[in-house]
């Protein structure tokens, strides 16, 4: 219970910090600095996904398996293999980023002038590449602790990493730009270096704990231990990690496509100024995504609960249980994420003002960008379900088709939206949404065909939720006649957002109570059922 509480606290705390720090950070570096930050961080995320995504979970599984069986030598060998794998992958990815930073900078910026230069991009990429020397090894050590069920230490290391990172980003960027009068490029460079320092502090903390618990880690059952070759253990780690690596990598690539294509396309094809184009990419790839974390965090917590239960149903060959859990997952996602997404879209202007102040493109871009959070939520839950059910082949095919559709449709959709009189960058956002939804559809077909999943409960929830959302939209648009949203003060924006949120929530929950959808989603007969379940859990 202690480990579960601290793990939950760590997730919530890190998510809150991840959202809140952008308010002072954006006020320092602005949208031009945000674009430079996005260029470096998205390229870094690709290489980080390659070098470490999935490894903590894979290491946790392998260590837990050998620890339970009492295979001390195999566990030790697996840990050493994992560390060497992380070190080698980290060095290779670091060298690629550091050596080819100039070419990557040119690939992103091209020959356009008037904003960030390819030299600026190259510098911040080289600085952030140092984090890849630390983070993959840190992920291995975390997996080692998790495999021994030392969840508290792992969670606290995440809190330490995030605290140090946010402190350096906020304080460091302010001092560099406003006190020491450094350039915007150096300010952003210090901000991205925070990932390295945060990882280093977390690593030092876990190394200290590893020495402290050394005896507990080696106490094993007295059993006759078979001999495992290095190749066998390496392949076991790889098999566990590969599906998760693929999911994380492809999810990162959607944003990276915009980083590579959007600015050049807007400037060269649609006559946007360089300043406006970089403002838009900072909104789409950095600032807007931070707000979307509020929505996506719900699905992250939901999948943490679903995965072990779904795995249990699969092991027991309980097809009815699999169907019920999958439907319940989608019911909960639809029940909460759709109204949150629509609400944030309607409130885009005051919400953007609360976080970032006035912006030419921020609110109009975010009112559409927020629907990427809905698509990402469906993508994350669906791909994880298929991965747990061992549908790796169809998962890889769907991921490849999804990212290819994003690449192919990005520019045509921009021309389409420009042709119908809307902002061209809406086409890029639409291509992202389509690229996320296509794998979802493919996986739906796979689940229905191979596991005979009947999605009628989820579809019924979708219909009732949409009915409630339409009612909410009507009421909120009527309110706009009396309470304007185009406010400039952060304090007034907070008050406006609170008023609209309370009214919207009352309307939405009033309708889902009326059409009984609230009872169906939570499997209760009346509202007292929620109270009884809560008290029972307590």
The portion of residues forming beta strands comes to: under 5%
From the spread of the alpha carbons, the general shape counts as globular
Q: CA-to-CA gap between the ends?
A: 12 Å
Biggest sheet: strands, sense, closure? Answer: none
Summarize the structure.
By secondary structure, the chain is an all-alpha fold.
Please render the helix and strand layout as text.
Elements: H1 2-20, H2 22-52, H3 55-69, H4 72-99, H5 101-109, H6 118-129, H7 135-147, H8 151-179, H9 184-212, H10 214-218, H11 230-270, H12 274-315, H13 319-346, H14 348-356, H15 362-388, H16 392-419, H17 425-451, H18 456-479, H19 490-514, H20 517-521, H21 528-537
Report on this model:
- The protein is mainly α.
- The chain has a domain at 1-219.
- It contains 21 helices and no strands.
- The longest helix has 42 residues, at 274-315.
- It starts with a helix and ends with a helix.
Name the descriptors.
mainly alpha; 21 helices; globular
